[in-house]
UniProtKB/TrEMBL annotation, chain A:
Keywords from the named record: FAD, Flavoprotein, Oxidoreductase
Coiled-coil regions listed in the entry: none
GO molecular function: FAD binding; oxidoreductase activity
Domain FAD-binding PCMH-type: 1-183
Record PANTHER family: XANTHINE DEHYDROGENASE SUBUNIT C-RELATED
InterPro entries associated with the record: CO_DH_flav_C, CO_DH_flav_C_dom_sf, Diverse_Substr_Oxidored, FAD-bd_PCMH, FAD-bd_PCMH-like_sf, FAD-bd_PCMH_sub1, FAD-bd_PCMH_sub2, Mopterin_DH_FAD-bd
Name of protein: Carbon-monoxide dehydrogenase medium subunit
The species this protein was found in: Nocardioides terrae
UniProtKB/TrEMBL annotation, chain B:
Membrane-spanning ranges: none
Name of this chain's protein: Carbon-monoxide dehydrogenase large subunit
The UniProt record lists the keyword NAD: no
Aldehyde oxidase/xanthine dehydrogenase a/b hammerhead domain residues: 20-137
InterPro entries: Ald_Oxase/Xan_DH_a/b, Ald_Oxase/Xan_DH_a/b_sf, Ald_Oxase/xanthine_DH-like, AldOxase/xan_DH_MoCoBD1, AldOxase/xan_DH_MoCoBD2, AldOxase/xan_DH_Mopterin-bd_sf
Domain of life: Bacteria
Sorted UniProt keywords: Molybdenum, Oxidoreductase
The species this protein was found in: Nocardioides terrae
Keyword hit for Oxidoreductase: yes
């Protein structure tokens, strides 16, 4: 469980990081960005991934602002070096969008949250992860940069497949924007995991406003899936969601059991989100 | 007067070091830059013939020093690894080679061994070795092994390594006469010890002295020493084995030698360099031992009170691809299944089966959890059938306190009679009922049902043979500083031996607890020893240390009597000072242990002030030899303890669980333990062992399983998917009560405590969940998903 050899870049500005990514891609298979390392390092150690180079962004100049959480008019902006633990602890972020803290409490364990970045989790695009589903449900976006300039990718264009985001191999994610909770709206999050802090067997986030009911699902489809449940009678919420999802069985749970969790959790989060309005 | 430390909850001395990260494990040894590191090429296939191994891509890689495959092994190294514990019933014993010869029989079997400058390079090199395989059909799981459509070993018909039967009478006749009979079919899945520190071995060859020094993370340093010497063609006197701190064993490190325990010393000698192997987590899952997997068929005949008239058990034990540790696990299941009960007639038949999976050797509890599970599921089934309280049926079958010693009429794992030494099961049952609130539970269950909540209570009883022989020894050495150095040969995996053994020495010798230093697992200090397993350290080494300290004390008193001109019988030793009984310490004549040590050794040369008083012109009677004919210089005591048979500890666990009606999640509301390990040396350490055992048991019952697919790939070979419980999954508190029925078999009246906490877990959770759900569980472990499936089947 030791990584294969790789070249190592330690840029001090986002521009240098983008340069390094571009140069590695020009010369070969391209580099991987190393953020908190909580997903990437295990993949390297088990040699499930062996990129020729890493671009370590942990030493970027703080002046670049990538470690900042900002409450902007459009929502909570989370820089690429904000750790899960920082975001979970941010009172301002919790007030602006309570779903963040509700979901983050289920992300792994304190030691992993201390290192893992929220933006890294989004780029990693694991459909079993909490934050991609949250970003998708809220209709947030990701700011990315490269030697070609910067662009903003809306959540619905971000998650393209299992562990696959629409970022180009030489793009660096700079920050994510989670829209703030609108007046009169409510959110809730619930999941069932085998052990506290494990990836969920099923997780559901709900957003209820005056005219819509929406839920986002993790671990029951290839990409985080948002389902519009507006006008669905309460008793049919679970079945309505299931018609759009594809729970599968694995060593931890059967497909039937996951379907049951979809029913139970959907009813629960919609109820709670309504209550939270 | 020094207060006795026996029975006191003395704080663990070793924790200062271990909790501050100052433990020194195998990987912390030899961290110097010159040390070479290893990696092992392991089979990716569960069953295959090796057609060709091509290492040519490796040899010229910079930083790679050597590669071994089977063809490079010679002499005893080229023979199969030892079958450590032969048994007459084990007719088809097969063990693996240090490196696979021409076949691989499980995913993870070692094929090639690479030594390089560092582990990174060694892993790079492993990736360049090319092996051509001819795939064979794998045999995975007990059903496939029994069906024997394919064979693991061509020359082992039916995949059966051993068939063993024991009976205490004519079970068929007894069954025919029984008023009621029931049949149960039960399964227990595979799990594993998974210590946080995997295996690790370091070796250094000294060409100047022709000696080998080995550090290894083992539960038996003397065992490793013997096998390394034998396999490498060395004399025992050329090999020293030291066990540093060990980050958990739980059984898996009693098996030896692991291939790397031989290959590392072999490489160290061949290359003339210090060589280190540190197993990684994935390797641990696929190449260190597993346990627990059994299929059981129980037939039981009983009367209206639930008394067992005939108990007829058959079970099939999955021991994996090889069987180096013999039949210990299934023999323990077959004998310890009886627990505290006395069926009129018992017959047990088991088959130990080969499968193309990681081999099985003892895991904490060593077959007892499965036996307890079979027996306790049966007890619950009888109670359900008769409509009686589950405790009542158990009580009707208990061996009574006046029936000890009680001979179960079977032969135990050590080849001796299964004869229980002492216990009080009826008193224990009363204690556990009170502790968990058994009699109040039905009312609580109804109250919860009214709120739409499901709760259930379970109970399980066990008896555990502990402290198996053959022997353990101890050496107690009093230094001229007054410090007491104690050596015993078995090893320590965190149990608190430094503390518990020092308590015994302080009490027996009369020295200060702080002055005692205990060394374990160092063959240079105690070359005769067995090892730490089978809950034997306290009983075996504890007794030996007590006896050795008594010998040292005798000598102290003899020399002190001479010096103080008093009779030995009039002397006492407190806090390391010998004085005349009743005399005030300040006024009367006294001598401290250090001075007695000085006097014990007549010197020719004075090297410091203290030694001046012991030179030949100052001590002894000039008319006699300086060391008397039947004496030795120095202040030491050495003794061995070798009991007739095992001591039998016992316990009962009870748990209250809640199951979620919608999500089938299982939560623990209360966990209670009553435990009897004879006299307690240190109740805090015993409770720590129980806490750890219960935590591990929760894992075994509700979380952990080895998920093999039909091709023999282990799908969950990481802590991400092998669900060892976190602190958030184990009960917040465990209520513990002790009962002390001293063992008559050893001078201290103690029994073992190490494994106990894990034994009844599968049984007690199956009982409680069944109670909550209203149907009987027959397969463990159980996950929420499993429970959901069962609910659908039963609705
Ligand atoms: C035991 C354990 C349990 C866990 N449980 C959970 C859980 O329950 N829920 C959950 O959501 N997560 C869980 N995680 C994952 C954790 O949240 C990770 O931190 C997160 O998925 C990735 O963040 P990171 O900063 O560690 O990214 P890294 O591991 O450094 O990178 C992950 C991937 O994203 C890319 N990347 C990262 N940052 C950028 C960037 N700024 N620009 C471009 N690419 C980037 C990397 O190149 C890499 O491909 C767990 C991890 C562990 C080890």
């Amino acid at each position: 469980m030791k990584p294969a050899p790789f070249r190592y870049h330690r840029p001090s500005t986002p521009a240098e990081a983008c340069e390094a990514l571009a140069a590695e891609l020009r010369d070969g298979a391209g580099a991987k960005v190393l953020a908190g390392g909580q997903s990437l390092v295990p993949l390297l150690s088990m040699r499930l991934a062996s990129p020729p180079a890493l671009v370590d962004i942990n030493h970027l100049d703080p002046a670049a602002g990538l470690a900042a959480i900002e409450i902007r008019p459009e929502g909570v902006h989370v820089g690429a070096l904000v750790r899960h633990a920082d975001l979970l602890a941010s009172e301002e972020a919790r007030l602006a969008q309570p779903l963040l803290a509700q979901a983050l409490a289920h992300v792994a364990h304190p030691t992993i949250r201390n290192r893992g970045t929220s933006v890294g989790s989004i780029v990693h695009a694991d459909s079993a992860a909490e934050l991609p589903a949250v970003l998708a449900l809220l209709g947030g976006s990701l700011d990315v940069g490269s030697v070609r300039g910067t662009r903003t990718v809306p959540a619905e264009e971000l998650f393209v497949g299992p562990l696959e985001s629409s970022l180009a191999p030489d793009e660096l994610a700079l920050g994510a924007t989670f829209p703030a909770l609108a007046d009169g709206a409510g959110v809730a999050f619930a999941e069932v995991a085998r052990r506290h802090g494990d990836y969920a067997l099923v997780g559901v986030a709900a957003l209820v406003s005056n005219d819509t009911v929406k839920a986002a699902y993790l671990s029951v489809s290839d990409v985080p899936t948002v389902i519009d449940l507006t006008d669905v009678p309460d008793d049919d919420l679970g079945e309505a969601a299931l018609s759009r999802l594809d729970p599968i069985g694995d060593i931890h749970a059967t497909a039937d059991y996951r379907a049951q969790l979809v029913r139970v959790l959907t009813a629960k989060v919609v109820r709670e989100a309504r209550k939270a309005r | 007067m020094t207060t006795k430390l026996m029975g006191q909850p003395v704080q663990r001395t070793e924790d200062q070091r271990l909790l501050r990260g100052r433990g020194r494990y195998a990987d912390d040894v030899a961290v110097s830059p010159g040390t070479l590191h290893c990696a092992v090429l392991r089979s990716p296939h569960a069953h295959a013939r090796i057609v060709d191994i091509d290492v040519s891509g490796v040899l010229d890689v910079d930083g790679v020093h050597a590669v071994w495959t089977y063809d490079d092994l010679t002499g005893p190294m080229a023979e199969p690894l030892p079958l450590l514990i032969p048994h007459p019933a084990l007719t088809e014993g097969r063990t693996q080679y240090a490196l696979a010869k021409d076949r691989v029989n499980y995913v993870g079997e070692a094929i090639a061994f690479v030594v390089a400058d560092d582990r990174y390079l060694a892993e790079d090199a492993v990736g360049r070795i090319e092996v051509a395989y001819d795939l064979l059909p794998p045999v995975v799981g007990i059903d496939a092994a029994r069906a024997a459509e394919h064979l693991v070993h061509d020359d082992v018909p039916g995949n059966v390594a051993a068939r063993m039967e024991q009976a205490t009478g004519d079970v068929e006749a007894a069954m025919a006469k029984a008023p009621h009979t029931l049949t149960l079919d039960l399964t227990v899945e595979r799990s594993a010890c998974t210590p946080l520190e995997g295996r690790g071995t370091v070796a250094r060859w000294d060409p100047d002295t022709d000696r080998l020094q080995v550090w290894t993370s083992t539960q038996t340093s003397t065992g490793v020493r013997a096998v390394v010497a034998a396999k490498l063609g060395l004399d025992l006197g050329q090999v020293d084995v030291v066990t540093p701190d060990v980050g958990g064993g739980f059984g898996v490190k009693i098996n030896h030698p692991w291939p790397e325990e031989l290959l590392v010393p072999l490489a160290a000698r061949a290359l003339g360099r210090t060589v280190k192997f540190t197993e990684d987590r994935r390797e641990h899952f696929i190449s260190s031992a597993h346990e627990r997997g059994q299929v059981q068929h129980v037939e039981v005949g009983f009367d209206d009170d639930g008394r067992l008239l005939a108990l007829d058990v058959r079970f099939w034990h999955d021991h994996g691809a090889y069987i180096p540790y013999g039949l210990i696990v299934p023999i323990i299941t077959s004998t310890q299944l009886l627990g505290p009960y006395k069926p009129e007639v018992y017959r047990v038949v088991f088959e130990s089966l080969y499968t193309n999976t990681v081999m099985v050797t003892p895991y904490r509890g060593a077959g007892r959890p499965q036996g307890c599970y079979a027996m306790e599921r049966t007890m619950d089934a009888i109670a359900g059938f008769l409509g009686k309280d589950r405790t009542e049926v158990r009580a009707a079958n208990f061996i009574q306190p006046d029936e000890f010693p009680y001979d179960q009429g079977l032969i135990f794992q050590d080849g001796r009679e299964l004869e229980y030494d002492s216990g009080d099961y009826p008193a224990m049952l009363e204690k556990i009922k009170a502790l968990v609130g058994w009699d109040d539970f039905p009312a609580y269950q109804q109250e919860m049902a009214a709120q739409g909540r499901r709760v259930g209570i379970g109970l399980a009883c066990y008896v555990e043979g502990t402290g198996v022989g053959p022997y353990e020894g101890a050496h107690v050495h009093i230094e001229t500083s007054g410090k007491v150095k104690v050596a015993t040969g078995l090893t320590t995996q965190g149990q608190g031996h430094q503390t518990a053994f020092a308590q015994l020495v302080a009490d027996t010798l009369g020295c200060r607890f702080e002055d005692v230093e205990v060394v374990t697992g160092d063959t240079r200090r105690m070359p005769y020893a067995v090892g730490t397993f089978a809950s034997r350290a306290a009983v075996m080494s504890g007794s030996a240390i007590h006896l050795a300290a008594l010998r040292a004390r005798e000598k102290v008193l003899r020399i002190a009597a001479d010096a103080l001109e008093a009779a030995e019988d009039d002397l006492e030793i407190n806090d390391g000072v010998v004085s005349v009984k009743g005399n005030p310490l300040d006024g009367g004549a006294v001598i401290d242990l250090g001075t007695v040590a000085v006097l014990s050794n007549p010197l020719r040369y004075a090297f410091d002030e203290k030694s001046r008083v012991a030179t030949q012109f100052t001590v002894g009677d000039p008319g006699k030899p300086p060391v008397a004919e039947d004496d030795e210089p120095g202040l030491e005591g050495k003794d061995f303890y070798s009991p007739e048979r095992s001591t039998f500890a016992s316990g009962m666990h009870a748990v209250i669980v809640e199951t979620d009606p919608d999500t089938a999640e299982i939560s623990i509301l209360k966990y209670a333990v009553v435990h009897d390990c004879g006299r307690l040396i240190n109740p805090m350490i015993v409770e720590g062992q129980i806490h750890g055992g219960v935590a591990q048991g929760v894992g075994g019952a509700l979380y952990e399983r080895m998920a093999y697919d039909e091709s023999g790939q282990l799908l969950n070979a990481s802590f991400m998917d092998f669900l060892m419980p976190y602190v958030t999954e184990v009960p917040d508190g465990i209520d513990i009560d002790h009962l002390e029925t001293p063992s008559p078999l050893n001078p201290l009246g103690i029994k073992g405590a190490g494994e106990a906490g894990v034994i009844p877990s599968a049984a007690v959770f199956a009982s409680a969940i069944s109670d909550a759900e209203g149907f009987a569980l027959t397969a463990m472990p159980i996950s929420p998903s499993d429970l959901f499936t069962l609910r659908q089947e039963h609705s």
